[in-house]
Specification:
Number of helices: 16
CATH superfamily of the largest domain: P-loop containing nucleotide triphosphate hydrolases
Largest sheet: 5 strands, parallel
Distance between the termini: 64 Å
Radius of gyration: 30 Å
Structural class: alpha/beta
Strand order of the largest sheet: 2-1-3-6-7
Length: 422
């Protein structure tokens, strides 16, 4: 028998209680989960609290026109299929029902085999609706990535950068283990995570990237584990969480240290069992995800202060990759600046951008507290502000950095770093 989450959910709405009970009993211990309602108001409550795949609707209910219920139901739940039943063979009513979106019509009395055959005819449409919903939820996470070219290159010529790249490729070859990427803010931890994902056997599946610090604490559990319709105020439909959406793929958790301790136990269990339970539900859902976590904090230190679970840390850092700060690898400033200048000159429609030697000299002396991200932003700003297609020191807000330009010039720079043209 299939798991409950895979069962087709059916609502039987008929004013004859014996009929709904008998039909519900027929569906018991099958791949269908049946709900009963004997009034329009009861039916409305069930429709609003469960994701119903199929509505079996009596066209004549006390004080209510079944066709009105059909019309409203199809407007509110367009993916729900409807089978109309009636003891009256009014062909005009049947035609109206079909025009309003009913899938099939059965006349009472009918045999259980008749309703089963009718449901079988709707099955492929129900399964198609489910697949579409699943795809929509997944695409909502990656639509932005589809609009923009994903930069999966790691720019760097330093020994430190080459070591990071080699470790990333090694992690890509071992998809069964989790990875912890450490480094200061702006060191492009997500870029390394993308290299690992897209160089691995999981590359054809989804990669979800989540900034843990950007999610309100009250929504964290729902966002990661999903929720069942009606689980809390505002939960108007079932929702897949990031752990379920990442099935067969990769989940990148940036700023993992910001996950509250009370939720860390749930993460540990999900990682160990490869299964989750949605908020408001009891069904365990299997999901085969790989976690790549990123942090700019010392997790071992936090674990020592009981601010991060040590057992979770051990689960996350099977492979640990540390990205050095940009100030620790100044050899990478030149290729990074050239890469960003080339990228933004094309993006901003300013071809032929060149860089004066003074710019290299100044930036080589700068400490870059914002690391690679700061250099990227500085370069974009400089290209926007430059007026003669040459990036000059005036295009970079060097005064803000308290850099002694004369000291930089006196220090001298390798001539190989000067005058690069695109």
């Amino acid at each position: 028998m299939k798991e409950l989450k895979d069962k087709i959910k059916i609502l039987i709405l008929d004013d004859e209680k014996q009929f709904t009970e008998e039909l519900s009993e027929f569906f018991k211990d099958t791949e269908f989960e049946a709900f009963e309602a004997n009034t329009a108001s009861e039916g409305k409550i069930i429709l609003n609290s469960h994701v119903i795949d199929l509505l079996i609707l009596d066209v004549r209910l006390p004080g209510v026109d079944g066709l009105d219920i059909l019309k409203d139901a199809k407007l509110q739940f367009p993916m729900m299929e409807v089978i109309i039943i009636s003891a009256h063979g009014d062909m005009e009513t049947v035609i109206k029902a079909m025009r309003l979106g009913a899938f099939d019509y059965l006349r009472k009395p009918f045999r259980f085999i008749d309703i089963q055959v009718s449901i079988e005819r709707t099955r492929k449409y129900i399964q198609m609706h489910r697949k579409l919903k699943n795809m929509e939820e997944r695409n909502s996470l990656i639509s932005k990535s589809l609009e923009e070219k994903i930069d999966r290159h790691f720019i760097g010529v330093s020994t430190q950068s080459q070591r990071v790249f080699e470790q990333a490729i090694s992690a890509a070859e071992n998809t069964g283990v989790n990875v912890l990427i450490t480094g200061e803010s702006g060191t492009e931890k997500e870029n390394i995570a993308r290299i690992i994902h897209y160089s691995s056997s999981k590359k054809d599946n989804i990669m979800c990237s989540v900034n843990c610090s950007a999610i309100t604490e009250t929504l964290l559990e729902s966002e990661f584990f999903g929720h069942k319709k009606g689980a809390f105020s505002g939960a108007i439909s079932d929702k897949m969480g990031f752990l379920e959406l990442s099935n067969k793929g990769t989940l990148f958790l940036d700023k993992i240290a910001d996950i509250p301790c009370k939720l860390q136990a749930n993460f540990l269990r999900a990682i160990e069992e490869k299964a989750i339970t949605r908020v408001g539900d009891t069904t365990r859902i299997q999901t085969d995800f790989r976690i790549i976590a990123g942090t700019n904090q010392d997790l071992e230190q936090k674990a020592g202060k009981k601010e991060f679970r040590l057992d979770l840390l051990h689960r996350l850092n099977t492979i640990q990759i540390h990205i050095p700060a940009l100030r620790e690898r100044p050899e990478d400033i030149k290729p990074l600046l050239m890469h960003f200048a080339n990228y933004y000159s094309v993006k901003l429609n300013k071809p032929g951008i060149s860089i004066s030697d003074e710019v290299f000299r100044i930036l080589l002396k700068y400490d870059f507290p914002g690391n690679v991200r700061e250099l990227r932003n500085l370069t974009e700003r400089a290209i926007i502000l430059c007026k003669n297609n040459v990036l000059e020191p005036d295009n970079f807000p060097v005064n803000r950095y308290n850099i002694d330009i004369e000291e930089v010039f006196n220090a001298g720079v390798d001539n190989a770093m000067i005058s690069h043209k695109y």
